[in-house]
Structure formats: structure tokens, C-alpha cells
Design a protein that fits this description.
about 425 residues; alpha/beta; D-Maltodextrin-Binding Protein, domain 2; 7-stranded mixed β-sheet; 4-stranded mixed β-sheet; 17 helices; about 15% strand; disordered N terminus
Length: about 425
């Protein structure tokens, strides 16, 4: 799969499901201190660097953060080391934190929060009093768990619809049905490039699933997803399966479209429409495609499509050696655009800082637009039970695209998930 630009999804959850949608780089850690081969590390993790403030991130985020973090440290009389962690960043962080040799700050996706809290790996953070005026609402809701804020958000990702203007006269279809008709009229080899894969891809299928009434978990009294209210296998998910099956019968959805080829089909002029995230913008523009951007549409007469939103955040380690410095640093992220803007220059992810969105809108309108689409998206469930969803639901959706009977397939998926949750 082409996964290097996907910076959002939970490594642990998707690893459990066997679906590779995350973006921890396979590259070796950067030279920001000793590496695992020097001893003292845990698994893929580097040994903690000798610095006042140590930050762990995946390769792309580490590269984008390194210079800005060091500059901040110099201005505050502190040494800062940003270390890249290859492989399972979340798992490596939990293990190192328990051993007392982990970082002070880790950068990751908001949907890690439930698992990190369950493992006593992170501590709540105090955002500035004007955070609600500074940060997008989706960022604040995504980083709140059990009534407390656990992450300082800086960027957001969600899915959008890309239209190749050379292959369709409808750049922003209002419904899936309008999209299908316009794509067929344009004569493209593929009406829609949406990665399904043989094993399924619930992340990319989520807009269609929600539009037809499907949900994953209900909402508990505390506002968090409720694992006791599983939506897979219920009426809405069956209805979603039926609509997904219809698109499979029409050849609009195909299991042959995967993470390896979904973007290249679009950049190669083989698909009228593409559903993907902000990581595709640079590749599409490099290919010279005259494209339009729009929200992913829903089915006619049904609910709006709600893709997942994922918020990249800074977390303060519960057992970090220098928590005061960690809190000082993450407060800077929350209160100023300086570090997030420096990170954007190196790794263009849609920002959640509203002032920064306005500042970047002229030169990067597409990425700012995607940040605004995220306000209508659904935060990725951050509860640990989400790990049980990916595999069964993905396999069910792929099977339905391939012709399996929707109701029994969705009911079986729900039973499999429930058995894992216990």
C-alpha cells in the first residue's frame, strides 16, 4: 500500500486489524540522540536522547518539527531533541514510558488517546483560556476524552472528493447518484477511485457507511463513544451494506482499487473522481491534473456523508523526566502559530489554528478547505475498543462490494466485533 503520507490512523488499532492505513515511516530514526541499537531503547524506539526536552514522532513529523523545536529551546535556554521512531510509535512510547526512559512529549493521532490513558501513558493538558477562539472545534472535541483534554492539536485530516475536470462536467456533485451519472457520462475508465481492497478499508468507506445510516458506536453520557452501543450489524449498517452493494454491482466500487493504485488511477486520468485525504494534493498537482475539490457527497435522500476526522496532537508523557518543560512547550503550540506554521512548511497538513488557516488560505487554499471540511466530519473514535472494528467491518464491506448478501454479512461482522470487545 502507498501509506507514507497517511499520518493519522492508529498504528495499534490498524495493526490489530491487519489494515495498513497509518503512516509511521519505515525509515530509520533521525540522528537526534542514541538509537535503539545503542541500547536503552524499546523495540523500534530510540534510546532517550540527552536533552532537557525529548520529543518522539514519526519520521515525517519529526523532520517537520526538528528545526522549530530546537529554535524554541534555544530561545528558552533549553536543549531539545526530536527523535524519529520507526514502526509502532504508539506501542514503543507506551513501553518506554512504563520503563521510565521514554520522551517528555509524543506526537500522534488523537485516536490514540483512549489506549494511552488506559495505559497511564499521558497526562491531561491545560489549554489557554482562549483556545476555543484559536482552535477549530473539531480539534477540541477530538482531543477531549472522559471530560478532560489530553492533547494539544495542531493539524487535522479528513477525506475529500477530487474531481478531474477533464473527465466530468460536475466538479461538486451533491449526491453519490449524481456523481455516478456524471462519471459515466464523461467516459472515464473508472467513475470513482475509492480504495476498497480485498480486505476492506472502513476508513475510506466511512462517508458512504454513515450516509446510509451506519454508525460504529453510540455516544455515552460523557460524550465519548460507547462500546456498549455497537452499530455494526444493526439496521443502519445493513442499509449501508445494501447501498454499498449496489455500487459494487454497478462497478463503481471495486476491490481492485487499493491504497497502491487509488491515487495513481486519478493522476493517470483513469478515474473521474477520487476520494482521499490531503496527502494526495501534492501528487495530484505535480501530475498537472485540473481538479476541483468538494466534500464527499452522500446518497440521495439519505444522511450527509461523514468521513472520519483525525487530529494530530502533542501529548505530555505521564512519566517523562521533564514534565514542566513538556507543558511549557505544548502550551506554545496551543498559544502561537509559530511552530505549527514551521511544521506546515515542511509537511503540509491542514492546520487547526484558525489564525493560521487564514494566513495560509491564499497560497494553500485546498489544504485549508480540507480543514474546513473536517468540521462536518466525525472524530475517529479514540476508545481502545475501536481496534476490534477495523478487520471485521473491512472484510464485510469488501465482501459486499464483491457480491455477498449485505444483511447477513453485516450482522456477522457485528457479532465478530462484539465477541472481541467482550
Amino acid at each position: 500500500m502507498k501509506i507514507s503520507r497517511r499520518t493519522l490512523l492508529s498504528t495499534t488499532a490498524l495493526g490489530a486489524a491487519g489494515i495498513a492505513l497509518t503512516s509511521c515511516s519505515d525509515d530509520a530514526p533521525t540522528d537526534a540522540g542514541a538509537t535503539a541499537s545503542d541500547g536503552g531503547g524499546s523495540g523500534d524506539a530510540p534510546a532517550r536522547a540527552e536533552a532537557d526536552l525529548v520529543i518522539w514522532a514519526d519520521q515525517l513529523k519529526a523532520d517537520s518539527l526538528d528545526a522549530a523545536a530546537r529554535e524554541w529551546g534555544e530561545a528558552n535556554g533549553l536543549t531539545v531533541a526530536v527523535q524519529a521512531v520507526a514502526g509502532d510509535l504508539q506501542g514503543s512510547f507506551i513501553t518506554a514510558n512504563q520503563a521510565g526512559n521514554g520522551p517528555d512529549v509524543v506526537v500522534g493521532a488523537h485516536d490514540w488517546i483512549g489506549n494511552l490513558v488506559q495505559n497511564s501513558a499521558i497526562t491531561p493538558v491545560q489549554l489557554p483560556g482562549d483556545a476555543a477562539d484559536r482552535l477549530a472545534p473539531i480539534a477540541l472535541s477530538a482531543t477531549t476524552y472522559d471530560g478532560q483534554t489530553y492533547g494539544v492539536p495542531y493539524s487535522v485530516e479528513t477525506l475529500a472528493l477530487y474531481a478531474n475536470k477533464a473527465l466530468t462536467d460536475v466538479p461538486a456533485p451533491k449526491t453519490i447518484e449524481e456523481l455516478v451519472a456524471a462519471g459515466q457520462a464523461g467516459g472515464a475508465d473508472n467513475v470513482l477511485s475509492l480504495q476498497v481492497s480485498e480486505g476492506g478499508d472502513p476508513y475510506h468507506m466511512q462517508p458512504l457507511y454513515t450516509s446510509a445510516g451506519g454508525y460504529l458506536f453510540g455516544t455515552g453520557a460523557n460524550g465519548d463513544p460507547d462500546p456498549g452501543d455497537l452499530g455494526v450489524g444493526k439496521e443502519g449498517s445493513v442499509r449501508a451494506g445494501q447501498k454499498i452493494g449496489e455500487l459494487g454491482e454497478q462497478g463503481v466500487l471495486k476491490t481492485s482499487i487499493t491504497g497502491e493504485n487509488s491515487i495513481s488511477l486519478f493522476t493517470g486520468g483513469k478515474a473521474a473522481y477520487l476520494v482521499t485525504g490531503p496527502w494526495a494534493v501534492a501528487e495530484i498537482e505535480t501530475a498537472g491534473i485540473d481538479y476541483a475539490l468538494a466534500p464527499v457527497p452522500g446518497f440521495e435522500g439519505m444522511d450527509s456523508a461523514r468521513p472520519f476526522a483525525g487530529v494530530n496532537s502533542f501529548f505530555v508523557a505521564a512519566s517523562g523526566q521533564n514534565r514542566a518543560f513538556a507543558e511549557q512547550f505544548v502550551n506554545e503550540i496551543a498559544a502561537s502559530t509559530e511552530i505549527p506554521e514551521a511544521m506546515f512548511a515542511e509537511n503540509k497538513l491542514p492546520p487547526v489554528n484558525l489564525e493560521l488557516q487564514e494566513k495560509l488560505a491564499t497560497d494553500n487554499p485546498e489544504l485549508v478547505e480540507i480543514a474546513r471540511y473536517a468540521e462536518d466530519a466525525e472524530p475517529m473514535p479514540s476508545i481502545p475498543e475501536m481496534a476490534a472494528v477495523w478487520g471485521p467491518l473491512g472484510k464485510a464491506q469488501a465482501a459486499i462490494v464483491g457480491g455477498a448478501e449485505p444483511e447477513s454479512t453485516m450482522v456477522s461482522a457485528g457479532e465478530a466485533i462484539a465477541a472481541q470487545i467482550g
